[in-house]
Design a protein that fits this description.
This protein is an alpha/beta fold. It is built from 6 helices and 5 strands; from the N terminus they run βαβααβββααα. The longest helix has 15 residues, at about 115-125.
Length: about 160
């Protein structure tokens, strides 16, 4: 299972409210603000440590233009993936959703974790360059080509 974001939890007891589902969650991908609300921590590594006992397999916190932080609890490894730079940013509306969609699409195609994070970053980068939340890309291959052109990333 994949928990993306938007649970709408109340301040003060956010972790208590989502704790029961974290053990059934393979990929937990909150935004920085959501992770801050849930954990009370400002640093991604500290956020990851707070969430470790709750059983999610992979914690990914979206950091906007700074990229993302990922902790794979099964391997004990973490990584930070920089954002794919957007040449002409227009609006951040939908960027987090595009990141999650890109992550899910890459994982379902059998991509490794780091490659999936890079792909997700490319999808988010494409999204911030349009004036609406949808329509920035129409295919997996289009995002792959953009990622290669933008940063030489290969999948």
């Amino acid at each position: 299972s994949i928990w993306v974001s938007g649970v709408g939890v109340a301040l003060g007891n956010a972790l208590e409210q989502i704790a029961p589902v974290l053990a059934q969650t393979d990929y937990f991908m909150p935004s920085f603000d959501e992770a801050l609300q849930i954990t009370g921590k400002k640093e991604p590594r500290e956020m990851a440590e707070v969430l470790r006992p709750f059983g999610t397999r992979v914690f990914i916190v979206k950091l906007g233009s700074r990229g993302c932080f990922c902790m794979d609890y099964e391997t004990g490894k973490f990584c930070e993936v920089p954002a794919v730079p957007a040449a002409h940013p227009v609006s951040t509306v939908g960027a987090g959703d595009a990141f999650c969609a890109g992550m899910i699409a890459a994982l379902l195609r059998g991509k490794e974790l780091r490659a999936s994070l890079e792909f997700a970053s490319a999808a988010a980068s494409m999204t911030v360059q349009v004036n609406h939340a949808t329509g920035a890309f129409s295919s997996f291959e289009e995002v792959e080509n953009y990622a290669r052109a933008a940063g030489g990333r290969t999948f």
